[in-house]
Amino acid sequence: MTASVNDLITLTPKDSCNTKLVAGPWDFDTVPGYGPGSSQADQLPDPVSRPGQLPERYQLMSDTELDERIVAAKATLGEELVILGHFYQRDEVVKYADFVGDSFQLAKAALSRPKAKTIVFCGVHFMAETADILSESDQTVILPNLAAGCSMADMADESSVETAWEEICETYGVDPEHVVPDAEGKLPILPVTYMNSSAALKAFCGRHGGIVCTSSNAATVLEWAFERAHRVLFFPDQHLGRNTAKAMGVALEQMPMWNPRKALGGNTEEQLREAKVLLWHGFCSVHRRFTVDQITQARAADPQVKIIVHPECPMEVVDAADASGSTDAIQKFIAAASPGDSIGIGTEINMVNRLAAQYPDRSIFCLDPVICPCSTMYRIHPGYLAWVLEELVEGRVNNQISVDPKVSSHAKIALDRMLAAKPKA
Ligand code: 13P
Ligand code: SF4
């Protein structure tokens, strides 16, 4: 069995991308930068449970004790509880999940258990918000550690996107609050937000004829958008937007970057008029670590090696790989490979290690030699899970994610459009 990422980090701190991760997550949680409110529109529970304030007894419990407590609390809560876990969660958490999947599958899983009173989401903030928006109004969504945000999601905030929208609409000579179709029946522009964004931005898309996408349906969603509009404003991940649109035949010159710190996003009016996809200046700090050099080295070491990467990786990396796809697509690629195959993966280390352990007859490795977990996914530790579950057994809800109903109703429009979008036959 491959060592868990916890062990790897503890064993090789100097090889980790973030030495702060060597400490327990409760120490790491007190590092400024993340916490309740780090994702905009975060409704703070009252009383606020600050990250790093996990009751000390849970910080001191052994792995065995935490395991026994989680198993017992889960058994007591029975059908009332559903635990969802993203592929990037550590093994020590994934083993308790009723559903494990990519962000699209987990959004659908949240819809599939309307009878469960509580959804405990072992993932990051935007995923728990989405579960709250899609679930029934009498269901409660809990994020075990409120400090589990997503740095990419935070790269697009509501007011910067509103400002960008106004400037862009002004360039096209349309009212930003009332963009209407032209003589061809198409809108000049519509917004597309990656699932990795706040509920407020999903609501923005809902209000402006836009839609949400995930890495598993981005091409379908862009097709949907181009049927209705001449252009899209795609946020926050420039790489997913560029990789997807490029594969659909959109020229790079027609995909200018929108830098929210610059006038007209750093573009000329002409560039904006010629654009098909305006790419927000966001990225994932885990996936941008993957490089073409790593792929070249892997191929030099083994010319038969197959390479698959997540589409949040830079374009040059996706182009140099044999395949790219969502976390679920990566999982399927590995499952479809043959014993003896060698596969280099460009995605988060917990998932790569789990696949390597699941398929010991294949040689599976992470392209990045430096161990780099998603530092926010990592914040869901069994200690937090044991705490929120035992509190639930006592009838107390901690770390609830509750999206404002007005935001939620508009965000749901954009999410429902995504759920209804089907790939062209
Ligand atoms: P998936 O939709 O592929 O699960 O990706 C979510 C994510 O955050 C990847 O960094
Ligand atoms: Fe966000 Fe990147 Fe972590 Fe995914 S891997 S949750 S995009 S920071």
Automatic annotation (TrEMBL):
Co-factor requirement: [4Fe-4S] cluster
Binding site for [4Fe-4S] cluster: C150, C284, C374
Swiss-Prot/TrEMBL keywords: 4Fe-4S, Cytoplasm, Iron, Iron-sulfur, Metal-binding, Pyridine nucleotide biosynthesis, Transferase
The keyword Iron is assigned to this record: yes
Localization, UniProt: Cytoplasm
Gene3D superfamilies assigned to the protein according to its UniProt record, in alphabetical order: NadA-like
Reaction catalysis annotation: iminosuccinate + dihydroxyacetone phosphate = quinolinate + phosphate + 2 H2O + H(+)
EC number: 2.5.1.72
Keyword Magnesium attributed: no
Cofactor annotation comment: Binds 1 [4Fe-4S] cluster per subunit.
Binding site for iminosuccinate: H86, S103, Y194, M195, N196, S215, H310, P311, E312, T327
Pathway the protein acts in: Cofactor biosynthesis; NAD(+) biosynthesis; quinolinate from iminoaspartate: step 1/1
One GO molecular-function entry: transferase activity
Top-level EC class: transferase
Family in the record: Belongs to the quinolinate synthase family. Type 3 subfamily.
Protein purpose: Catalyzes the condensation of iminoaspartate with dihydroxyacetone phosphate to form quinolinate.
Full protein name: Quinolinate synthase
Source taxonomy: Bacteria, Bacillati, Actinomycetota, Actinomycetes, Micrococcales
Gene that encodes it: nadA
